[in-house]
Design a protein that fits this description.
Elements lengths: L8 E5 L4 H12 L3 E6 L6 E3 L5 H15 L2 E6 L16 H22 L3 E10 L12 H20 L4 E7 L2 E2 L1 H7 L1 H5 L6 E2 H12 L10 E4 L12
Parallel strand pairs: 1-2, 1-4, 2-3, 4-5, 5-6, 6-9, 7-8
Helix pairs in contact: 1-7, 2-3, 3-4
The structure holds nicotinamide-adenine-dinucleotide (NAD).
Nicotinamide-adenine-dinucleotide binds next to α1, α3 and α5.
EC number: 1.1.1.385
Family: Belongs to the short-chain dehydrogenases/reductases (SDR) family.
Pfam family, one: adh_short_C2
Amino acid sequence: MLLSLTDRKVLVTGGASGIGRACVEAFRAEGARVVALDRAGGADVVRADVTDESSLAAGVAEAVALLGGLDVVVGCAGISGPVGTPLVETSAADLAAVIAVNVTGQLLLAKHTYPHLSDGGSIVFLASDSAFVSVPGMVPYCASKGAVVSLTRALAVEFDRVRVNCVCPSIVDTPMARGDLGDEALDDAAFPVQTAEEVARQVLFLATPLSRAVNGQALLADFGYSARSAFPA
Ligand SMILES: NC(=O)c1ccc[n+]([C@@H]2O[C@H](COP(=O)([O-])OP(=O)(O)OC[C@H]3O[C@@H](n4cnc5c(N)ncnc54)[C@H](O)[C@@H]3O)[C@@H](O)[C@H]2O)c1
């Protein structure tokens, strides 16, 4: 399959860890030039906080200077927040933190990268299957990921020069998931688990001209769980 990513200029937020890191490596393996942006450090990481507009703008400016423009932007920076805590016991500060990174961070990323994106470019956000399904103790995270699906659709309408899509994976084996669920739950999982590399391939598809007609969409990659009827057949 011809991905046409050679020398494409790619910015990945959350690029120091997990799915973001896997995206950085997958794009590089296809010949793209990639800048990773993250609030955490790393040898090849531009340090910036996606919730802080001046910090993010400076990080984007540095990436644009390093690459000479942008063709693809991937928004992976995210936090799970107080997973496992019922909403009635969740502080306003914890709610605000989840919305700040997962929603405002993606909006600011779109705001500051769109002027630099080439015509025909692509933005891909990490949403989650949590935009569509839930378990108790995940209300803020689910709300934030539902917002990512919505902002994806709205941006696809407003941004006429680039496509905007999001991926919505179920559980992915990353430091975030291990931190929330524990190593045991993932090492001997009683449910299907994706690798970060598998999610990166979904992102790559949405970033390439192969998906030229796909715009404003949420790619729900959950092994078909959400498609099942309540009817016990
Ligand atoms: N792991 C899963 O099961 C799963 C499933 C569906 C969706 N997702 C989503 O995928 C994305 C990546 O998650 P992951 O599992 O790789 O997590 P991760 O914790 O391994 O990586 C997230 C990265 O985002 C960075 N980050 C967090 N807040 C930031 C900020 N304010 N500014 C800049 N960088 C910031 C972190 O430093 C980290 O490097 C997230 O948006 C997450 O919600 C994860």
